[in-house]
Design goal:
This protein is an alpha+beta fold and 224 residues long. It folds into two domains: 33-130, Jelly Rolls; 146-210. 38% of the residues lie in helices and 29% in strands. It is built from four helices and eight strands. The strands form two sheets. It has a four-stranded antiparallel β-sheet. Strands 2-7-4-5 form a four-stranded antiparallel β-sheet, with no helix packed on it. Strand 4 and strand 5 form a beta hairpin. The longest helix is centred in the C-terminal third of the chain and has 67 residues, at 146-212. Residues 1-31 have low confidence and may be disordered. InterPro entries: Emp24-like, GOLD_dom, GOLD_dom_sf. Potential role in vesicular protein trafficking, mainly in the early secretory pathway. Appears to play a role in the biosynthesis of secreted cargo including processing and post-translational modifications. One of its GO terms (biological process) is protein transport. This is Transmembrane emp24 domain-containing protein 7. Belongs to the EMP24/GP25L family.
Amino acid sequence: MQRPGSALRWAAAAGSWGCRLLVLLLLVPGPGGASEITFELPDNAKQCFYEDIAQGTKCTLEFQVITGGHYDVDCRLEDPDGKVLYKEMKKQYDSFTFTASKNGTYKFCFSNEFSTFTHKTVYFDFQVGEDPPLFPSENRVSALTQMESACVSIHEALKSVIDYQTHFRLREAQGRSRAEDLNTRVAYWSVGEALILLVVSIGQVFLLKSFFSDKRTTTTRVGS
């Protein structure tokens, strides 16, 4: 989903409104193009996404498989002419950075076609370009004030916190999925062991009973 922002508008009034406005400024998402999506990829399926990118724009594609099977997926990235820029098979997670060589629509696809019955949950973050500075320098005649410098530092720190929170949420979701899968397997294994023990116990009872049962013999006389 796109994260539109209005940081530049707020920055123009930062000096007159003081610290409270600076805090509001830090909470506004940046206008840099970024897409973060978590989606389900069924078995034997392929899902593609498209993004219009201008020439010379630096982009980063990062993805991770959260749940499903061996937590792997195929990923492929192509430029507007169909040239393959990135291709990996059965990757659990990866990150790829490139600079667009031409204008056009770039395509990246995730494939689960190698799986016959397991669907996957995939997260990806596709960043296009870089966030513009909070305080643009083209109309400035002086250096940043101490308050503006602190604002920039806090803003960068908050972006790092958001990135860390995202990764921790992904790891927590992946760990929960593995724990639930392990719990299901242990439950099935316990039920199977209980059934096996029941069958063996019944078999042993009948076997021991056969050892102590009286065997009657029948004698038949054949007369002339």
